[in-house]
Specification:
The protein has 3 helices and 12 strands. It has 155 residues and is mainly β.
Length: 155
């Protein structure tokens, strides 16, 4: 029997510091992005990663249906991008170039993983999306972190 509330669980999970990512995809209406901290590696061989969009998000159907997406691990100076894509998914004023499967690519991230949407699984109020990594880009910058409900950087 569960002896805690959703708020208790959210608070407890918030004590796990995570990196901050923006996941992007191309839709029939244009480029779309979403700030995500539910990102993890799955396998080196084959090269697989996962992330989990919330089913209640207005952007959910586009990411569920996407054939390709790009995961951008954000640098400390990219907090404005994280905040933008947390609030809205459009690319108004956000420069990008097309990547594999036309997934929009953002400049300046620590790591960018261009992925094929390999498979997805039910994850309760989220969908667990597994991507096959097709191409990697890396740069050297300090990371942007998320801890206890706030953006942070390494000291």
């Amino acid at each position: 029997m569960q002896e805690f509330s959703q708020d208790d669980l959210r608070r407890a999970l918030g004590r796990f510091a995570t990196g901050v990512t923006v996941v992007t995809t191309m839709t029939p209406r244009g480029p779309l992005g979403m700030t995500v901290n539910s990102f993890s590696s799955v396998s080196l061989d084959p090269a697989l990663v996962l992330w989990s969009p919330a089913r209640k998000s207005a952007r959910f159907p586009a990411f569920e249906a996407s054939s390709h997406f790009a995961i951008h691990v954000l640098a400390a100076d990219q907090r404005p991008l994280a905040e933008h894509f947390a609030r809205r998914g459009d690319f108004t004023g956000i420069p990008f170039e097309p990547g594999l499967g036309d997934a929009p690519l953002l400049d300046g991230s620590l790591t960018r993983l261009e992925c094929l949407h390999a498979v997805h699984y039910d994850g309760g109020d989220h969908l667990i999306v597994v991507g096959e990594v097709l191409r990697i880009t890396e740069e050297e910058h300090p990371p942007l972190l998320f801890y206890r409900g706030s953006f942070r950087t390494l000291v």
